[in-house]
């Protein structure tokens, strides 16, 4: 490793902060302070650029109660905060107890407890970001660990300098550079003894696998970082194509439901189709956790099934319909579309029914002739019995469909019109007494039609709200 000066280190940190837009003026940087070398390096290095970028620093330490010497780490963080004049927060929680209770690995339990503490402290400051001490070696280990476990381009991206409220200011610094700087500046730090054990997967990669590979290629860590950068560039191109395709496919979107154009979705090549499915799952689920490549391919098999079929995985349902492919959360209809109730509808009034607003008015023949027909229907007022009733479909529902007095099953009408199953139970059915007068907004029945001797006309208007 070539020699470097303190100025070179600080300038590189400054450039990283600028290039990746890590810190803004008046930010409060919540530093995850462990007492280890990465953490101490980050604290002291950020202190050097604090005045330049105009931000505040707060140190937060979680004592995992995992080792007997954990109190030494806690004390070092407190001593560092007092020496540098920083506000600090310390909390003690057993990661082993939490791991046992939640059935997690000790590493995962510790990570969850730390980030829970960081975010609680974050809420007490208006412009807060969490700074964690991941370094270049951590990045290389993460990439290799994902390769070993099996990953695609998304996984090769590994860690970003910035992800939501988390920043990684020292990601470009190697462990050798960090330790040299700490020695050069006489900064105290503690070594976590568990990092020297081979109990954990990451530690085996760090202590056994990477050193063996470095015997063949001394620059192996740099090669992994370069692989990650190439993957990131390639992925940005793919994501651009994916986002454009998703935008073109999308018909409706809310927090619990995504609807895609069926024909356009079926015209996609398989690789892009898989990525669109991944994106839809991530939009609704907020993550791809528990969704494997096999799960995504299983969802894609819906293309070869009949309309109306569904595939479910955890909380996500994927359905094929006549005109759309729909993703929704399993509680979508229960919470968002409670159409089970009956609603009374009076003349010159309005009512809400699920996501619809239904209005009525009494008009004359001239107004009727000049009225727009979109989402409106008109009936002979004197042939109706009030209040009208609004409800959803029921088994054996029929309506007057023909001038000769013949009726038709509502179910057959839905099939003939190719109205998707996922919306049949949300369609307002409007009745006069026991007679269906309008399947809103698709078809009025032949009951109470406007004729030459009609005196008063009832207009019913449907609006989706």
What do you see in this structure?
- The chain is built from 17 helices and 22 strands.
- The protein is of the alpha+beta class and 465 residues long.
- The strands form 5 sheets. A 6-stranded mixed sheet has the order 3-2-1-4-6-5, with helices on both faces. Strands 7-8-11-10-9 form a 5-stranded antiparallel sheet. Strands 12-16-19-20-21 form a 5-stranded antiparallel sheet, with no helix packed on it.
- The protein is elongated.
- The model has no long low-confidence stretch (mean pLDDT 90).
Task: Summarize the model shown.
The protein is of the alpha+beta class and 465 residues long. The chain contains 17 helices and 22 strands. The strands form five sheets. The protein has a six-stranded mixed beta sheet, sandwiched between helices. Strands 7-8-11-10-9 form a five-stranded antiparallel beta sheet.
């Amino acid at each position: 490793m070539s020699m470097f000066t303190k100025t070179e280190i600080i300038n590189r940190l400054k450039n990283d902060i600028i290039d990746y837009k890590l810190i803004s003026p008046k930010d409060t940087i919540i530093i995850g302070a462990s007492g280890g070398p990465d953490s101490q390096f980050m604290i002291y290095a950020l202190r050097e650029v604090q005045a330049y970028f105009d931000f505040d620093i707060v140190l937060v330490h979680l004592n995992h109660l995992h080792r007997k010497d954990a109190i030494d780490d806690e004390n070092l963080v407190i001593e560092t905060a007092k020496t540098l004049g920083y506000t600090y927060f310390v909390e003690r929680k057993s990661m082993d107890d939490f791991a046992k209770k939640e059935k997690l690995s000790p590493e995962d339990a510790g990570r969850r407890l730390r980030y829970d503490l960081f975010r609680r402290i974050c809420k007490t400051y208006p412009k807060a970001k969490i700074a964690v001490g991941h370094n270049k070696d951590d990045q290389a280990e993460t990439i290799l660990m994902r390769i070993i476990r099996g990953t695609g381009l998304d996984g090769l991206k590994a860690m970003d300098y910035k992800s939501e409220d988390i920043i990684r200011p020292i990601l470009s610094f190697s462990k050798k550079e960090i330790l040299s700087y700490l020695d050069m500046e006489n900064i105290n730090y503690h070594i976590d003894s568990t990092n020297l054990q081979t109990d954990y997967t990451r530690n085996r990669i760090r202590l056994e696998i990477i050193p063996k590979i470095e015997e063949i290629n001394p620059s192996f860590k740099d090669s992994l970082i370069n692989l990650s950068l190439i993957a990131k560039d390639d992925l940005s191109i793919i994501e651009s194509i994916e986002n454009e395709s998703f935008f073109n496919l999308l018909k409706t979107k809310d927090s619990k439901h995504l609807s895609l154009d069926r024909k356009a979705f079926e015209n996609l090549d398989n690789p892009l189709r898989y990525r669109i499915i991944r994106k839809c799952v991530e939009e609704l689920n907020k993550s791809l956790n528990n969704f494997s490549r096999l799960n995504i391919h299983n969802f894609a098999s819906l293309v070869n099934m009949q309309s109306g079929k569904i595939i479910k995985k955890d909380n996500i349902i994927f359905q094929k319909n006549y005109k759309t492919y729909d993703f929704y959360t399993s509680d979508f209809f229960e919470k968002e579309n409670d159409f089970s109730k009956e609603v009374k509808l009076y003349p010159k009034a309005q009512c809400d029914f699920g996501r619809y607003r239904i209005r009525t008015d009494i008009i004359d023949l001239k107004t009727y002739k000049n009225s727009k027909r979109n989402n409106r229907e008109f009936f002979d007022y004197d042939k109706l019995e009030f209040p009208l009733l609004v409800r959803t479909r029921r088994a054996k529902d029929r309506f007057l469909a023909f001038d000769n007095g013949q009726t038709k099953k509502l179910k057959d009408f839905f099939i003939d019109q190719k109205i998707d199953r996922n919306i049949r139970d949300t369609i307002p059915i409007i009745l006069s007494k026991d007679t269906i007068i309008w399947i809103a907004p698709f078809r009025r029945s032949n009951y109470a039609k406007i004729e030459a001797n009609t005196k008063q006309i009832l207009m019913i208007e449907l609006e989706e709200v």
